Amino acid sequence: MHPIKIEYQRIGNRFFPIVDVEIFYKDRSVITKAYVDSGATYSIFNSDLADILELDYKKGRKLYPIGIGGHICAYANKVRLKIQDVNIRCNVLFSDEFVVRFNLLGRVGMFDKFRVCFDDKERVLYLYKKS
Amino acid sequence: MGICKEIGEYILIYEIKLIMNMEWNELKKYRGLWVAVYKGKVIASGKSGKETLQKAKKIYKKPIIFQVPRREEEVCIL
Q1: How confident is the model at residue A68 (pLDDT cuts 50, 70, 90)?
Q2: Which of A56, A57, B30, B45 is least surrounded by Cβ atoms within 10 Å, i.e. has the fewest?
Q3: Size of interface A-B (CB pairs under 8 A)
């Protein structure tokens, strides 16, 4: 299986592993960008995206994911993600307290479908589809 | 190590370049805002995702929308 090769995206003076991801909920979808974060368990998205999807995300399970900066309030909701041509049904978090302007793609879901290799020196992210 | 060795052995058949691989010089004008991108160009911007998407849909139905980090946010993403 040949990997999908995705060049890192420049943000300021640094380069980051950012991928396009389409989020589906019912008959709606939105395409956005997300930072592939192998240190995160769950993916977390800005609540504006839930609004676009007309997803009442606060009906989801309330969680308080903990990061270096403390914890935030987030809600787990099941959606479908599409990364390249791979569909992933999984729980993701939406939060209106997630003020950093990066959506994060965590391990749940994505890392079940891809073997992920970060080549920081070459600034390339390799995604190997798992069979 | 195993993965890196495999990469060396593979000849990459296809390479997908992100549309997002647009010039940072263009994106940085929109720090802190939502932007909608189509074919590597910003076609709309705004303070919320919904507002930005509504503006962008007049040009293209399904753009990529995301927020552009502020200067202080780009320094260290944990």
Answers
A1: low
A2: A56
A3: 101
| pTM of the complete model | 0.80
* Residue A6 to residue B18, Cβ atoms within 8 A: yes
Which residue among A5, A102, A117 sits closest to B16, beta carbon to beta carbon? Answer: A5
From B63, B48, B16, B6, select the one nearest A33 (Cα to Cα).
B63
Domain count, chain B: 1
CB-nearest partner of A52 from B7, B53, B75: B53
Distance from CA of B27 to the nearest CA of A (A): 9
Q: Which domain holds residue A89?
A: 4-129
The Cα-based distances of B18 to A2, A62, A129, B15, B22 in angstroms read: 18, 33, 18, 10, 8
Q: Looking at this predicted complex, what is its ipTM? A: 0.75
